[in-house]
Specification:
Order of helices and strands: HH
Structural class: mainly alpha
Number of domains: 1
Largest sheet: none
Radius of gyration: 18 Å
Protein name: DASH complex subunit Dad3p
Organism: [Candida] jaroonii
Shape: elongated
Strand content: under 5%
Length: 84
């Protein structure tokens, strides 16, 4: 779902950050769909998910958690900066 944030009266940087969140959300949904397709295919072929895939997914999960924390802190600093 695309939202036009420019009509909300936000600054350019706020609009860009929200757009980046929207893009990240879209990419995560696409990734989730792809992972489900891969998992279903692997389960049919090998009767389970390989250990290597599980390790890779754990690494990806850790990296996504770091990205999430960075975005969260950026939004927090934007909000506190705009309140001053």
């Amino acid at each position: 779902m695309e939202v036009d944030y420019s009509k909300l009266g936000l600054s350019t940087i706020e609009t860009e950050i929200l757009h980046q969140y929207q893009l990240l959300s879209k990419q995560l949904h696409e990734l989730d769909n792809e992972i489900q397709n891969i998992t279903l295919g692997v389960n049919r072929e090998n009767d389970g998910v390989s250990e290597e895939m599980l390790r890779n997914m754990r690494d990806l999960e850790k990296k996504l958690a770091v990205v999430y924390e960075i975005f969260k802190s950026s939004i927090y600093s934007l909000i506190t900066y705009s309140d001053e």
